[in-house]
């Protein structure tokens, strides 16, 4: 499959090499323009999808017993990436990576045992440790990751038509996680800190490790002071928990409990709108509760409320208009283009920032747009992202964890960790967008 892509590319290269210089430039430009303007069809993406389908087994692990720092889990799971001979390797499960990696499997009900097993592993971690840690390592126990548990539960419940008894048991674990971890007010979970809103945290009370809990390690959003911020994405996720708890209560005809969760969600929305919503700029911003002011970094975290369904139609329209801050040739940049030197004080590299784009953030934005009826905007962004991924795959034979969406032919900006290839959540969102915008519309 990869050889086919290389052979096709070599044929084009051979033809171009035989041309006169002026003709060569004209033809190269024409090829570039046509590549970025084309509408993808199933045949265009099939080699990449075949690669992805064959790659999953390389990411699958099964460790039922504790082994030194690696925690035992009852079911097989997926790790974020694998590359032969790479010094930076994974054998542990990660919380939010796991949620995104199954998204491409839900649409066609692929691998039900694996998908349900990954969710069971997350639930088992909470039952055992009273937290779903950043990853299934003893040294990652001091923090969690962005909480997608209730959405994961409902994705599995709906995709595989499970019974209500299973749903109740799983949601009960999520309720405990919500109360103990995300609404905790003292060590080891001092997250609920200001007017009913929560922050990212780490038991060591270090800003950079709290930033790691956000999954955005590192980012200019918090200015290396993550403990001082109420993040818009985290609190939108907790709003989604409250809505899902209300939904579950109504399924079991408990109207009193449903009303309580409805009120909790409404209260959170009102406080977030007051502290975080900037109508002039048409975006939500993280709130520095220590300084009692909004942060100044525009980021795709602002679209988590759209995904969670907590914005009004008017707010949604403002958010859609603000997409132009982030939209580039290759997709959505994680933040808008801040002047050099305004990212993070000190020497810490930031990879969750302009010019990089990430698969999970494209998923959040696209799903939010679809939820509010902005199908054409969702499709445009999804197709840009698919083309960026596909062009890199056709040229290099791999998928990346992140991409340079401003100049898609160039490598992404490096972060604290080595750049990864063959990446699970990139593969999954590529497959999901193919299902949504190519398969269903062909």
Write the layout of secondary structure elements.
Elements: H1 2-17, H2 21-37, H3 42-59, E1 60-61, E2 77-78, H4 95-101, H5 103-106, H6 112-129, H7 149-159, H8 164-182, E3 192-194, E4 197-198, H9 207-213, E5 229-230, H10 232-251, H11 255-276, E6 277-278, E7 283-284, E8 287-288, E9 293-294, H12 304-308, H13 313-322, E10 327-328, E11 331-332, E12 356-358, H14 359-371, H15 375-396, E13 402-404, H16 424-439
Antiparallel strand pairs: 1-2, 3-4, 5-8, 6-7, 8-9, 10-11, 12-13
Helix pairs in contact: 3-16, 4-16, 6-7, 7-8, 7-10, 8-10, 10-11, 14-15, 14-16, 15-16
What does this entry look like structurally?
A hairpin with a 2-residue loop joins strand 3 (192-194) and strand 4 (197-198). Helices cover 51% and strands 7% of the residues. The strands form 6 sheets. The protein has a 3-stranded antiparallel beta sheet. It has a two-stranded antiparallel sheet with strand order 1-2. It has a two-stranded antiparallel sheet with strand order 3-4. It has helices at 2-17, 21-37, 42-59, 95-101, 103-106, 112-129, 149-159, 164-182, 207-213, 232-251, 255-276, 304-308, 313-322, 359-371, 375-396, 424-439, and strands at residues 60-61, 77-78, 192-194, 197-198, 229-230, 277-278, 283-284, 287-288, 293-294, 327-328, 331-332, 356-358, 402-404. The protein is globular. By secondary structure, the protein is mainly α. It has a domain at 1-17 and 38-57 and 326-442. Helix 4 (95-101) packs parallel to helix 16 and helix 7 packs antiparallel against helix 8.
């Amino acid at each position: 499959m990869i050889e086919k892509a290389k052979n096709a590319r070599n044929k084009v290269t051979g033809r171009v090499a035989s041309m006169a210089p002026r003709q060569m430039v004209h033809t190269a430009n024409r090829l570039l323009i046509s590549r970025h303007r084309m509408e993808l069809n199933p045949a265009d993406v099939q080699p990449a999808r075949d690669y992805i389908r064959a790659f999953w087994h390389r990411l699958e692990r099964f460790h039922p017993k504790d082994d030194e720092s690696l925690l035992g889990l009852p079911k097989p799971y997926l790790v974020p990436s694998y590359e032969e001979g790479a010094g930076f390797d994974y054998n542990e499960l990660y919380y939010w990576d796991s949620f995104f990696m199954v998204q491409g499997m839900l649409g066609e009900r692929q691998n039900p045992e694996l998908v349900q097993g990954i969710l069971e592993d997350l639930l088992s971690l909470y039952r055992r440790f009273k937290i779903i840690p950043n990853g299934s390592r003893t040294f990652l126990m001091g923090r969690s990751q962005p909480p997608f548990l209730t959405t994961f539960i409902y994705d599995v419940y709906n995709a595989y038509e499970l019974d209500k008894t299973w749903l109740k048991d799983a949601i009960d674990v999520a309720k405990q996680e919500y109360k103990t971890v995300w609404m905790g007010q003292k060590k080891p979970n001092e997250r609920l800190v200001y007017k009913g809103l929560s922050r990212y945290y780490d038991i060591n009370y270090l800003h950079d490790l709290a930033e790691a809990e956000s999954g955005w390690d590192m980012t200019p959003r918090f200015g290396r002071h993550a403990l001082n911020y109420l993040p818009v994405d985290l609190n939108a996720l907790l709003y989604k928990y409250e809505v899902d708890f209300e939904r579950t209560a109504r399924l079991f005809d408990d109207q009193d409990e449903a009303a309580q969760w409805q009120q909790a969600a409404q209260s959170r929305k009102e406080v977030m709108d007051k502290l975080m919503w900037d109508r002039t700029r048409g975006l939500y911003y993280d709130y520095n509760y220590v300084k009692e002011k909004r942060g100044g970094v525009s980021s795709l975290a602002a679209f988590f409320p759209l995904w969670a369904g907590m914005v009004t139609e008017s707010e949604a329209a403002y958010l859609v208009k603000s997409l132009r801050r982030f939209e580039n040739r290759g997709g959505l940049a994680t933040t808008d283009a801040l002047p050099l030197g305004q990212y993070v004080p000190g020497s810490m590299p930031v990879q969750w920032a302009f010019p990089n784009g990430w698969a999970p953030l494209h998923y959040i934005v696209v799903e939010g747009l679809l939820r509010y009826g902005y199908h054409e905007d969702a499709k445009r962004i999804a197709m840009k992202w698919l083309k960026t991924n596909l062009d890199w795959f056709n040229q290099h034979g791999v998928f990346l964890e992140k991409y340079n969406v401003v100049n898609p032919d160039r490598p992404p900006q490096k972060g604290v960790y080595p750049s990864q290839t063959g990446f699970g959540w990139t593969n999954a969102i590529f497959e999901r967008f193919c299902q949504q915008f190519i398969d269903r519309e062909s």
